[in-house]
Amino acid sequence: MVVFKREKDLKRYLLNISSKGGLVGFVPTMGALHKGHLSLLKEAQNQCDCSVVSIFVNPTQFNDKEDYEKYPVDTSNDILLLTEAGCDVLFLPGVEEVYPKGIDNTPTYDFGYLETILEGKYRQGHFKGVGQVVARLLDMVQPDTLFLGQKDYQQCMVLKSLVAQIDLKPEIVICATQREDDGLAMSSRNRRLLPAQRAVANLLYQCLVSIKTKKGIERFSIVEKECRDILKEKGFTPEYVALADAADLTLLDEYDDNRKMVALIVASIGSIRLIDNMFVN
Ligand code: PAF
Q1: 34 catalytic, yes or no?
Q2: CB of 140 closer than 8 Å to CB of 176
Q3: Is there a contact between 44 and 145 (Cβ–Cβ < 8 Å)?
């Protein structure tokens, strides 16, 4: 695996590959890698000639200073995992490389409705930061295909909108959420869970399963309340338990079989915020 820290070195290397017709597959990450990231890498390796993973903990997408400061960093282990997995290129830029003109002078994008609901509503400014950094990373990597995880469903939609707004048009491939044996969605933040918190952390998954299985049997408003109540009972602070149209994230009050639906949940336990989603039909 080749490791680059500078945009110009990365670009020179990748230009050599793409000028010979090689396809570049890109997996952007914030490090603290787990099997979910590695499954994205595997897909990039399957579909492309050169796999590129970036690790950059982007300061502009954290609305909560503590979350940024406590975000797990484990670069030497990440390098080990990527090497073992046969990754071709690791891009490891610093803040000055990503934002050479300064954060305030780096363009941001408008995601309209997506910025006003769910993650957009609860994490003000988060998607502005995600769009800003991914636009910069795409400009540096210039990939043919961008690989994203379904776990961050709304982020996938935001990034589709980003690609529609910028000149580069990589194909976007969304890969299934990877789960622990008990259903907990794999996430870098999971490593901060204390044993007692980890023991109940799959409750989000269980709630999603119950939203799915109770379709046609119970009203969504009742199931939503049941989910909130059980989450609270087990020590979580639920932020949202939502049902939405999977195509555009229009929020739904009730199940609607005429639409493809996705259920989305966010709940915190202690200071750790967990997120998950599942298609309902
Ligand atoms: O999903 C993430 O890890 C981040 O939001 C991303 C896409 C790497 C941008 O910093």
Answers
A1: no
A2: no
A3: yes
- Contact, 118 vs 240, CB < 8 A? yes
Adjacency order of strands within the sheet including 171-175: 2-4, 89-91, 50-55, 24-29, 145-149, 171-175
Q: Which domains does the chain have, with CATH numbers?
A: 2-175 (3.40.50.620), 188-275 (3.30.1300.10)
pLDDT tens figures, 118-150 = 999 999 999 999 999 999 999 999 999 999 999
Which residue has the least CA distance to atom 1 on ligand 1?
29
Which residues, other chains included, contact 235 with Cβ-Cβ below 8 Å and sequence gap of 6+? 197, 200, 269
Out of 24, 29, 32, 37, the active site residue is: 37
Model confidence, pTM: 0.97
Task: Tell me how far apart the alpha carbons of residues 128 and 45 are, in angstroms, rounded to a whole number.
Answer: 29
